[in-house]
Amino acid sequence: MSRRIGILTSGGDCAGLNAVIRAAALRAHHGYGWTTIGIGRGTLGLLERPVEAVTLDPARLDSSLARQGGTFLGSTNRGDPFAYPMPDGSLKDRSGEMVEGLKQLRLDGLIGVGGDGSLDILRRLLAPSGVPFVGVPKTIDNDVGQTERAVGYSTAVAIATEALDRLQPTGASHERVMVLEVMGRDAGHIAIAAGIAGGADVVLIPEVRWSVDRVVGHIARLRAEGRTSALVVVAEAAGQSDEAVDEAADAAADAPDHGVGEWLAKRLAKATGAEARATVLGHVQRGAMPTAEDRLLASALGVRAVDVLADGKGDRMVAWWNRQVIDVPLEKVVGRSRTVDPGGALIRTARALGICLGDAI
Ligand code: F6P
Questions:
Q1: 3-state secondary structure string, 309-332?
Q2: Which residue's C-alpha comes closest to atom 16 of ligand 1?
Q3: CA distance 164 to 100
Q4: Is 217 helix (H, G, I), strand (E, B) or coil?
Q5: Please, what is the average pLDDT of the chain?
Q6: At 288, is the secondary structure helix, strand, or coil?
Q7: Cβ neighbours for 100, distance < 8 A, ≥ 6 positions apart
Q8: Would you say residue 68 has pLDDT above 90?
Q9: CA 184–ligand 1 middle distance (angstroms)
């Protein structure tokens, strides 16, 4: 029997979202003869009347879509249905309106492409509706539990690595300490991966307690060995590491309006006597053409999400694990974000390469 399934992208965008949408819609059409409805602007489209939605025509989902960054459906990270921000500043539960919007679409299943926060919200939203829900993990932060990879992470790492490739020669030319602040929310996945790939001297992440003194000591050692410049990668939340918090509090007067990158560059300049410059990479990490790896992951997960619905399952997330595409219960995912394992392979690799993590080891 022909079915109608919906798909929406929710939370911060990243590279590879269009490839997920394309893969799911093609699988639904060619594999099962189903129609796919794309819902606009994440959950926000469900508040519109008529609901903001479009039937995805497989003939228009050509391969160029897999190359495009962003999400052609739009997304939001501000539309929590249970605490929706109203113009007067209050928060209102608008989940009922969104469920009503979903009913109007007469869907037999919904695929939500999101990070763990979005997947949690969508799961709770869908629960009373009886519409089976399958999540696809995406986020440059790569912090979704139960999957080794989230869509968008590979591209963000490639961009951060390229930024280091570009900062190294200019830093070397001017004998500077170059600090690159990368995104990642509360996790250091982008920082540690790009730091290794891009040949950083120092990588600071929230999962490893670090201190400026140790970074200064490392830069002094490099100098003694004849190096005149240094590359430092700092995750945006690295200032949350305990010692760094104390130091940041001390230094708050120096850098009240800036992030950890600016703050660190100032501290390093003062302590080492070298010139230091900070680059905050920001949303550049999200808005790119996806890497081949992200296109592959997005395609594999998009296909699997439809297969999970076809199997009659719901409340699942598709995942990449040990070179396999699997699906896992969403209850095991939500509220359990996956941070960098301080004893894991990447941390051991970084230490073996002589990269300073700012700690005592
Ligand atoms: O979760 C993705 C992410 O890009 C984080 O790395 C970053 O902290 C945050 O979103 C930025 O959010 P916004 O787009 O609202 O500035």
A1: HHCCCCCEEEEEECCEEEEEEHHH
A2: 283
A3: 48
A4: helix
A5: 94
A6: coil
A7: none
A8: yes
A9: 8
Mean pLDDT of 302-308: 98
Identify the three-state secondary structure at position 277. strand
Report whether residue 140 contacts ligand 1, using a CB cutoff of 6 Å.
yes
Is the CB of 41 within 6 Å of ligand 1?
no
- CA 146-150-153 angle, to 5 degrees, is 140
pTM assigned to the model: 0.95
Whether the predicted pLDDT of 300 surpasses 80: yes
Interior/surface letters 320-338, b for 16+ CB within 10 angstroms, e for the rest: beeeebebbebeebbeebb
Joined together, the tokens standing for residue 299 give 């395609």
Compute the distance between CA of residue 229 and CA of residue 223 in angstroms, rounded to an integer: 8
Domains of the chain: 4-152+290-321 (3.40.50.450), 155-286+342-352 (3.40.50.460)
Question: Residues for the chain: how many in total?
Answer: 361
Q: Which residue has the tokens 């240094």?
A: 230
**Which numbered atom of ligand 1 lies nearest the CA of 285?**
4
**CB distance 119 to 105 below 8 Å:** no
Residue 53 forms beta bridges with which residues?
A: 39
Whose CA is closest to 47, among 12, 4, 20, 86? 86
Q: What is the dihedral of CA 55, 301, 195, 211, to 10 degrees?
A: 90
Task: List the one residue out of 318, 322, 293, 320 whose CA is nearest residue 304.
Answer: 318
Exposure string over 143-170, b if 16+ CB within 10 A, otherwise e: bbbbbebbbbbbbbbbbbbbbbeebbee
